[in-house]
Amino acid sequence: MKHKGAWLVWGAGVFAYMVAVTQRTTFGVAGVEATERFSATASVLSVFTVVQLLVYAGLQIPVGMLVDRFGPRLLIAAGAALMCAGQFQLAVADSVAGGIAGRSLVGAGDALTFISVLRLLPAWFPAARVPILTQWTGIIGQLGQIASAIPFAFVLRSFGWNTAFVSAAALSVLALVLAAALIRNYPGSSRPPAAAAQESGSSLAAAWRHPGTRLGLWTHFTIQFPGTVFVLMWGYPYLVSGEEVSPATASILMTLFVAVAILCGPWLGTWVGRHPMRRSTMVLLIAGAMAAAWLAVMLWPGPAPVWLLAVLVAMLAVGGPGSMIGFDFARTFNPSSRLGTATGIVNIGGFLASLIAMYLIGLVLDLLYSGGFSNGDLYSLTSFRIALAVQFAVMGLGIGGILRSRRIVRARMAGEGLRLPPLREALARERRRRRDERQGRGGTGQQTHTGE
Ligand SMILES: N[C@@H](Cc1c[nH]cn1)C(=O)NCC(=O)O
């Protein structure tokens, strides 16, 4: 059942997440100014991003346990306060150490936000709506990037570093006030007892032991990282220096990425709500499509045509919303008392894989350059293609994790007497459901039983 005030609670949570995404991405927009302000090279500046991501990923499990114990409201408000402090610190910092301290605070506040907002959904909305609302949370949150790319960039270029980062800090004050005023952890009297401190450790062990949580982790690991690596680090230099597309075309391709992620999110959310027993198959299909698109681009003789690059970007973009299926596994395979912990475990996956892939790609590019393979061009097309191919190894590791945890989940389901209908049977049932729907014969189209 949906509860009164649910949209307001969710709205304040999503706003806090959107602001977190803005704070997360402001530094990327300020690269040129940061180089001058901190007198730093590009590789020193990349440390800012890596430290921020490490802090974010490292805090996921403690934050998940804290959400289960204290509820999302306190954590969302604390996250906004930390991000405000971090952006303020960055506004006044003029040394690399001071800047990294600011970015670490931003990473910490960011880490508190997303899983706390997801934790609100099952408490306030009916189970059948949670997959689609999870997708909308992710989609609306990503719009925070637009606030960095347009108004933040404008203030930075017109009024300078200090004003821009103080303004960003002020946005988190607004998120904090709205969270404190509007968010309630549970509707009315339905508040379950908070987890006791000593229960937190055992709920972490229990969440980890459940193969469904690990299936979620590997899902997030496998299909979030190719898009993150592309957008946060290597996509733009690869397109412009490697594939030799113009900066304007590269920007259009990056915009296509955001558009595809927004468009396919609701479709995926509805699909997952209807076919909970086929979620891992969908995840494997998305992973296969991303790998196939990369392979086609890499094997193309000479620079790839723009249409093929657009197909690649579209496939990579599906990974953002696709990885949200990982959180659906966490939700449906864990009781609500340890949902935050399980969500935190899942959310480490994509960020860990992104850090590994970003580092390995940079390493291979450097090795090819120092070994004389690149003919003095660090970002040559062939070097880029060889370096980017390390993603297949990271993806292979993730697919191995998915298949293994899925096998254990299926064995456990079989032990509980739950039979997974063969794909042909499921497809025939879906065709019947659509026909009935077209002929106006009932059925909500939603299945709420769990599976993989
Ligand atoms: N998969 C992302 C969010 C997303 C949704 N649609 C596109 N991207 C994710 O896991 N986000 C975690 C976070 O903190 O942003």
From TrEMBL:
PROSITE patterns: MFS. It is a multi-pass membrane protein. It is found in: Cell membrane; Lysosome membrane. CDD domains: MFS. Pfam families: MFS_1. It comes from the Bacteria. Residues 9-408 form the Major facilitator superfamily (MFS) profile domain. Keywords: Lysosome, Membrane, Transmembrane, Transmembrane helix, Transport. It catalyses: L-histidyl-L-alpha-amino acid(out) = L-histidyl-L-alpha-amino acid(in); L-arginyl-glycine(out) = L-arginyl-glycine(in); L-lysyl-L-alanine(out) = L-lysyl-L-alanine(in); L-alpha-aminoacyl-L-lysine(out) = L-alpha-aminoacyl-L-lysine(in). Residues 429-452 are annotated as: Disordered. The chain crosses the membrane at residues 44-67, 74-92, 161-183, 215-236, 248-269, 281-300, 306-327, 339-364, 384-403. Belongs to the major facilitator superfamily. Homodimer. Interacts with lysosomal protein GLMP (via lumenal domain); the interaction starts while both proteins are still in the endoplasmic reticulum and is required for stabilization of MFSD1 in lysosomes but has no direct effect on its targeting to lysosomes or transporter activity. Lysosomal dipeptide uniporter that selectively exports lysine, arginine or histidine-containing dipeptides with a net positive charge from the lysosome lumen into the cytosol. Could play a role in a specific type of protein O-glycosylation indirectly regulating macrophages migration and tissue invasion. Also essential for liver homeostasis. This is Lysosomal dipeptide transporter MFSD1. It comes from Arthrobacter pullicola.
